[in-house]
Write a structure and sequence with these properties.
Blueprint lengths: L2 E4 L5 H12 L3 E6 L3 H15 L3 E5 L5 H15 L2 E6 L14 H29 L2 E6 L2 H5 L5 H21 L4 E8 L12 H9 L9 H12 L10 E4 L6
Parallel strand pairs: 1-2, 1-4, 2-3, 4-5, 5-6, 6-7
Helix pairs in contact: 1-2, 1-8, 3-4, 4-6
The structure holds NADP nicotinamide-adenine-dinucleotide phosphate.
The site of NADP nicotinamide-adenine-dinucleotide phosphate has 30 residues, from helix 1 and strand 2.
């Protein structure tokens, strides 16, 4: 069975990506760190709805041992991973001068060590099979930089560099590495903003609406499909025209 691993798949954008791949007939591994109940409930829901194997797998993506253990368990239970979606992420808004050393490290580690750990753990099977798709979730702030989000913007810009360099290195093994940069997408990550700020963000979006997790999932599914076999190292903005 072809298996997809979605990190941070318990909710928000990750859960929409998990659903999209389940609807396409893939076995789906939903990674979670804190949201165990949500991940397990989503697994049951997707299995019932799409009649494909789906499982919830715990790992803090920052922790290499946890990631290695998770990947081994997924291979055992669902089969070899052919698509990896590095989606797990956190965000906070803080003036640069107020960011503590720990906050800086956790931000970079969640996004960058997370992508590093998960990719290294799954890539050997992809190289062996001479096939694989790796899709990284960055952000429009990784492209433009966001005020009061220097740590987040730095991590997300890193994901773009990671995508481009890895795409070149893995292309001879027929592994595509691409990146999706969401704009403002309605998930728990926006809970830090007031209704007024969200309204402003909507009004500043040329398509005049905030994005949905499904908007992102559709783009990710394209990069996971054979239709994108000749695309690698791409950075796709899915943001309603907010950044062009
Ligand atoms: P969300 O609803 O807050 O979900 C974040 C997900 O990341 C959760 O499933 C969470 O899992 C997981 N996660 C966080 N730290 C983790 C860790 N150490 N190990 C494993 N999983 C971890 O946010 P979202 O909006 O869906 O964000 C998904 C991705 O899109 C992130 O990379 C985010 O930066 C990016 N993005 C979002 C927006 C937006 O406007 N929403 C815009 C641009 C980019 P647990 O709850 O189980 O810990």
């Amino acid at each position: 069975m072809n298996t997809v691993l979605v990190t941070g798949g318990s909710k928000g954008i990750g859960s929409a990506i998990a659903e999209e791949f389940a609807s396409l007939g893939y076995a789906v591994a939903i990674n979670y760190n804190k949201s165990e109940e949500k991940a397990k409930a989503l697994s049951l829901e997707l299995m019932k709805k799409y009649k494909v194997p789906v499982g919830a797998y715990k790992a803090d993506v920052k922790d290499r041992n946890e990631v290695a253990h998770m990947v081994a368990k997924i291979k055992d239970e669902l089969g070899t991973i052919v698509i990896l979606v590095n989606n797990a992420g956190i965000s906070t808004q803080k003036e640069f001068s107020q960011i503590t050393n720990d906050e800086w490290k956790v931000m970079l580690s969640t996004h960058l060590d997370g992508a590093f750990n998960c990719t290294q753990e799954v890539m050997h099977d992809m190289i062996y099979r001479q096939y694989g798709k790796i899709i990284n979730i960055s952000s429009m702030w990784g492209v433009t930089g966001g005020s009061c989000e220097v740590h987040y913007s730095t991590a997300k810009a890193g994901i773009i560099g990671f995508t481009k360099a890895l795409a070149k290195e893995l292309a001879p093994s027929n592994i595509n590495v691409n990146c999706v940069c969401p704009g403002v997408i309605k998930t728990d990550m926006l809970n830090i903003f007031s209704e007024e700020t969200l309204e402003d963000l909507k009004n500043n979006t040329p398509l005049k609406r905030l994005g949905t997790p499904t908007d992102i999932a559709k783009a990710v599914a394209f990069f996971g499909s054979k239709d994108s076999d000749y695309l690698t190292g791409n950075i796709l903005n899915v943001n309603g025209g907010f950044v062009i």
